[in-house]
Amino acid sequence: MAHLLIEKCGLLFWPQLFLNIAASTLVVAYLLAWKRGEILPGERPWQAALEPLAGLAVTLGLFGSVWGFIEAFGGFQEGMNVSALVKGLSLAYWTTGVGIATSLIATLGSYLLDMLIRNR
Which domain range does residue 34 map to? Predict the structure, then answer.
């Protein structure tokens, strides 16, 4: 699976992987801190970290989309190249999907933490 993602997302795989690991690690760390009672009711320290990560992940995914569309449609001056079109569109959709998945991890993690704090 990782080989497929590296192939499909190209160079944008590595920053997306970093954002995904950072978001996942932060969610787990804040959950553990909540479980140990280190987060007081009303505190929401994860917002300062998780919300920007979610935004960065989506932005990086959209950047990959634009890059993929440029690769897909940029060569039409020399005629239609189906291989370049498919490769560029694949890059666009994969990077967008990975960005959205990373954003979901950060956003849903933040929401879960909010619910846990409210119901404590």
Answer: 2-118
